[in-house]
Amino acid sequence: MKTIIEPFKIKSVEPIKFTTRDEREKILENAGYNPFLIHAEDVIIDLLTDSGTSAMSAKQWSAIMEGDESYAGSKSFYRFESVVKKITGHKIVIPTHQGRAAEKILFSIVGGKGKFIPNNTHFDTTRANVEFTGAEAVDLLNETGKHPEIKADFKGNMDVEALENFIRKAGKENVPLVMITVTNNSGGGQPVSMQNIRDVKSVCEKYGIPLFLDACRFAENAYFIKKREKGYKNKSILEIAQEMFSYADGATMSAKKDALVNIGGFLSMNDENLATQCRNLLIVTEGFPTYGGLAGRDLEAVAQGLEEVLDENYLQYRIRSTEYLGEKLTSAGIPIIEPPGGHAIYIDAKRFLPHVPPHQYPGQSIVCEIYINGGVRAVEIGSVMFGKYHPDTGELISPPMELVRLAIPRRVYTQSHIDYVAEVLIETFEKRNKLKGYEIVYEAPVLRHFTARFKPLK
Questions:
Q1: How far separated are the first and last CA of the chain, in Å rounded?
Q2: What CA–CA distances, in Å, run from 44 to 14, 35, 41, 129, 344?
Q3: Domain 21-50+311-456 is found in CATH 3.40.630.10
Q4: Alpha carbon distances (Å) from 169 to 122, 163, 174, 175
Q5: Model-level pTM greater than 0.90?
Q6: Residue 416: its H or E element
Q7: What is the pLDDT of residues 364-417, one digit of tens each?
């Protein structure tokens, strides 16, 4: 089999600033040992997130020049709306400036004290927007998905039996909607099967509860279904995506992922009453319903990106690029969530640093060290991001997994960049016994990982 090459040519480039190890040690110290607080120009390879970091295509830049900046009724909105409706089949499309804005609007309306939102796994902003309303975000990941070392095709699936048991226990009147995140970001970028989406929909219908998709990586999920699930190998990515959305009553999306843009998002749904409430809140917080906090040029870029992401050649390259890094790391003995997910490699920090307990944040230790070693920026997804304190004892309650995510921006880095990342990780792994834990010296009450400051333990 021939090498899978990038299905594009590079038309514009951006220089990378190189730093020394001594410089990076000082930069990291000044940033409070939090990669979020490092200036981007001081990063050599930036794998902090794949959100809003894509390289846009020539056609997307061309579409930007077509942007209609009319306040109301922009033709760019109607192109955007048409593309979203074609993919989702949903009757109503509400633009927002990014995914968390869609979440904020939705959960402000359906959430509240005493309410519960089940999900396969909530990601950070989704959880924060649910809990900000007083509702409780409930993760119901299948058991296989909780074990990084186990290889399975659809580790992102929701535990359907647990979902039904939870609804019975909580009361269906207290569950305003069920959500499935595709692909499952916090669970390792792992895909969700079509059968699982159908099964969850069946439970939702039984209890009269709407099903929503967190759809920011819907195309990557559709590609996994095509490659791994029986009955889909001859279907197009569009056909698979349309079937996924057909089981959902609505969706939130950060267009900064699979729409290949730097800003944008949307809410889609079929419920006219809910849509009216969402639009009313949108007008107060985001803007008129035909622009929703976005410029017309952004709506054009999103529409074009949503068409481009359905290209199977692009998706083959995208998934293979991630898999390639995973193979490099596992061949060196580095423990990751297997098999590799769609948009990122997730290092299992518990197995990488077994001598650093969760309350000393092993994932944070790894992200700091790989920055020092090679200027590679990644993010901890473990007790820093999702840890909570016991209300009575103040003791840290850790999530099931301690991970480090290496999120790969779309159409940005070449194979040699990824080879360099692997070399930095392997060098760090070889010196893992010397790594120490960290403690938090400052944290915000919500989404603490964005602004927290740390110090290394002696």
A1: 50
A2: 12, 12, 8, 32, 18
A3: no
A4: 20, 10, 10, 11
A5: yes
A6: helix 415-430
A7: 999 999 999 999 999 999 999 999 888 889 888 899 999 999 999 999 999 999
